[in-house]
Write a structure and sequence with these properties.
By secondary structure, the chain is mainly β. The protein folds into 2 domains: about 10-370, YVTN repeat-like/Quinoprotein amine dehydrogenase (Methylamine Dehydrogenase, Chain H); about 375-454, Immunoglobulin-like (Sandwich). Helices cover about 0% and strands about 50% of the residues. It contains 1 helix and 38 strands. The protein has one helix at about 255-260; strands at about 10, 15-20, 20-25, 35-45, 50-55, 60-65, 70-80, 85-90, 95-100, 105-110, 125, 130, 140-145, 150, 160-165, 175, 185-190, 205-210, 215, 225-230, 240-245, 250-255, 265-270, 280-285, 295-300, 300-305, 310-320, 325-330, 345-350, 355-360, 365-370, 385, 395-400, 405-410, 415-425, 425-430, 435-445, 445-454. The strands form 9 sheets. Strands 1-2-28-27-26-25 form a 6-stranded antiparallel sheet, with no helix packed on it. β4 and β5 form a beta hairpin.
């Protein structure tokens, strides 16, 4: 296990980066696993603590990240049957739901509140309930508004979504399925509130179904209805997609096109203004040749697990005008950015703290965070800090404003130094009490600068 490593001059330790610091890392060996896969997260509403959940070939790992630079691997829920490369986790209320491609695995249910009382980590956990209405499943989708889980890529309903009522999480109940769209590899299912008012308040399924996108109204579980389907050029494997927050545009990744066609990472965007008549909007090509995997939207950013290129962060604020640009990345795979099935499997960018989970197939668990932290360097020319990075002492120098107070904060927002001065233009400060990592230095209560302690 390792702690924080700031992104400095394009790297965080061995990892290429742009704008994202490595908060911490836990290896697969430490979790007694051979491969990593999916990831998700849970925030305990009672304590406010954040927990990462990571899929492994032989089970599901639970990690306390309430101190992001010193996470605690709490233990593992072993696979229900055998090991598998594929495992997927989602959360509903205070429960984790886990599926796998392992034969006979079904859906495990785990009460996450048990993580509050882990005394001697790592523990080997047991499942709290199990659903055996299907055996293997490639993926799992949960609509937290409706309280339904959907196993996709199962051995039922032609591989389409298998409906399960989880409103009582410890007693999952079969509720039908949707077979008309055939095999679903991944999906987003939500209570619709987008621009097409014909479907406001309806439960809408958007399936990435290998060679097309299928849209269906699944509100009536006994009578799901296909709304439309749409495809695109150079279809090789329609893998996964996600709505923009206004539910107007749908962002799709094809998992095999980079291998078959070549070129850089392709992201396909559709305009879903009319769910019955979706249209192709445009394509975006990334900075590397790596294969795209899972992607998620938070505000105006799209966070993509980009296999050998790690996590890539795209600005989608101007998506309506067919404009997307890469604004940052953290590359968890150091062996190059070519098209191949290594590196980042998934990202989870939904923690309120801003910490982002990257689950890496070969490496393990990575926790990263954007560097911005409210610092605007172009406005900070009045003051300088040197040396930076520093080890035992720093000097803060001002061009013309006397220095009266200096406060230093760690990445948790905790003030670790608070010093008053007698209005000089230069001050020397002993920082030998600080551990290595990234800090924020607030000068005169109105200017903030970054400090890296070696």
């Amino acid at each position: 296990m390792s702690g924080q490593t700031p992104c400095t001059n394009g790297t965080a330790g061995d990892y290429p980066c742009n704008g994202y610091d490595l908060q911490s890392f836990i290896s697969l060996d430490e979790m007694d696993a051979f491969e990593g896969n999916d990831s998700w997260g849970w925030t305990d509403s009672q304590t406010g603590k954040e927990y990462a959940i990571m899929g492994l070939n032989n089970g599901t790992a639970f990690i306390d990240i309430s101190n992001p630079t010193s996470p605690v691997y709490l233990g593992k829920l072993p696979t229900h049957t055998s090991s598998s490369t594929w495992r997927d986790i989602k959360v509903y209320e205070n429960y984790a739901f886990v599926v796998s491609e392992a034969n006979g695995h079904g859906m495990q249910v785990f009460d996450l509140t048990r993580l509050r009382s882990v005394a001697n980590p790592p523990e080997t956990f047991t499942e709290d309930a199990h659903y055996n209405g299907f055996g293997r499943a490639h993926n799992l989708v949960i609509n937290e508004d409706s309280g339904y889980a959907y196993g996709v890529g199962t051995n039922s309903f032609n591989g389409g979504p298998h409906f399960v009522n989880i409103q009582n999480p410890l007693n999952p109940v079969a509720a039908g399925g949707f077979s008309a769209g055939l095999y679903t590899h991944d999906a987003q299912i939500l209570t619709y509130n987008g621009p097409d008012t014909d479907y406001t308040g309806r439960e809408i399924f958007i399936g990435s179904n290998e060679d097309n996108i299928v849209i269906a109204d699944i509100t009536d579980k006994a009578n799901p209805v296909t709304i439309s389907s749409v495809s695109y050029t150079n279809v090789y494997y329609t893998h996964q997609g996600w709505f923009t927050e206004d539910q107007r545009y749908f962002i799709v990744g094809d998992e095999i096109d980079e291998l078959q066609v070549g070129g850089n990472t392709r992201t396909i965007i559709f305009d879903f203004n009319d769910l019955a008549a979706p249209v192709f909007h445009f394509e975006h090509f990334g900075e590397t040749a790596a294969i795209d995997h899972n992607g998620y939207v938070v505000g105006d950013k799209y966070y993509m697990a980009n296999y050998r290129a790690g996590m890539r962060v795209l600005d989608i604020s101007d998506i309506a005008n067919q404009n997307i640009s890469e604004i940052g990345y953290f590359d968890t795979y150091t062996g190059g950015n070519s098209a191949g099935f290594d590196g980042a499997w998934n990202v989870y960018p939904y923690f309120e703290s801003g910490n982002i989970v990257i689950s890496d197939i070969n490496g393990g668990f990575f926790l990263v965070k954007a560097q911005s932290l409210g610092v605007s360097e172009e406005d900070q020319l009045e003051f300088s800090i040197y040396p930076n990075p520093a080890e035992n002492n720093i000097t803060i120098k001002s061009e013309n404003e006397p220095i009266t107070i200096v406060e230093i904060y760690n990445v948790l927002g905790q003030r670790v130094l608070n010093l008053d001065f007698s209005e000089r233009l230069s001050e020397n400060i002993n920082i030998s009490s600080l551990h290595s990592g990234l800090y924020l230095v607030k000068i005169n209560a109105n200017t903030t600068k970054r400090l890296i302690v070696k």
